[in-house]
Amino acid sequence: MDFDFSSEFGQNVLKRLNSELCIWLTTVGPDGTPQPNPVWFLWEADSFLIYTQPDSVKVRNVRHNPKVALHFNSTFDGDNVVIFTGEAIIDKNAPLAQNNPAYLEKYGEGIADIEMTPESMGNSYHVAVRVKPHKVRGF
């Protein structure tokens, strides 16, 4: 994705990529039905890294159709919209969650809140989905 983060919209996108805890990932089911799910994510320079369980619908859908969309929640009145479209892969080279310092920094408190440890989180959510966005739009 060739995106100008220096514009006003770009600065807002970058701020949200670095501060939001949750983003909606929409995959496509085998029957063509969109399947949106809120997920934790890391923005890593040019892609999203999302950890999930191996038997999740997200994994099945990405293997069937890699085209995905992601979006942040808008404001109550429908402003501050940011939508990404792109392709997802199962990233077998990504570190496990418990071995990813940036992920633990961002979600350590959340992991504890759901009564997991970094190790149990990494053992359960050990499939890494990497989304490379091709386009971003919003207002």
Structural summary, described in words:
The chain has 139 residues and is an alpha+beta fold. The chain has a single domain, classed as Roll (Pnp Oxidase, Chain A), CATH 2.30.110. It has 4 helices and 7 strands. The protein has a 7-stranded antiparallel beta sheet with strand order 2-1-5-6-7-4-3. Strand 3 and strand 4 form a beta hairpin.
Q: Tally the beta strands.
A: 7
Helicity range: 25-40%
Q: Could you say what the CATH topology is called?
A: Pnp Oxidase, Chain A
Strand-residue proportion: 25-35%
Structural class: alpha+beta
Shape: globular
In DSSP terms (H or I, runs of 4 or more residues), the helix count works out at: 4
Radius of gyration of CA atoms, rounded to a whole number: 15 Å
Major sheet, described briefly? 7 strands, antiparallel
What is the count of distinct domains?
1
> What is the CATH C level class, in words?
Mainly Beta
Q: What's the pLDDT, averaged over the residues?
A: 96
**Physical arrangement of strands within the biggest beta sheet:** 2-1-5-6-7-4-3
- Residue stretches low in confidence (pLDDT < 50, at least 5 long) are none
* Second rung of CATH, namely the architecture: Roll
Say which CATH homologous superfamily is assigned: Electron Transport, Fmn-binding Protein, Chain A
End-to-end distance: 18 Å
Q: Topology as H/E string?
A: HEEEEHEEHHE
Strand-helix topology:
Blueprint: H1 8-19, E1 23-28, E2 34-39, E3 42-43, E4 48-52, H2 57-64, E5 67-71, E6 82-90, H3 101-113, H4 118-124, E7 127-138
Antiparallel strand pairs: 1-2, 1-5, 3-4, 4-7, 5-6, 6-7
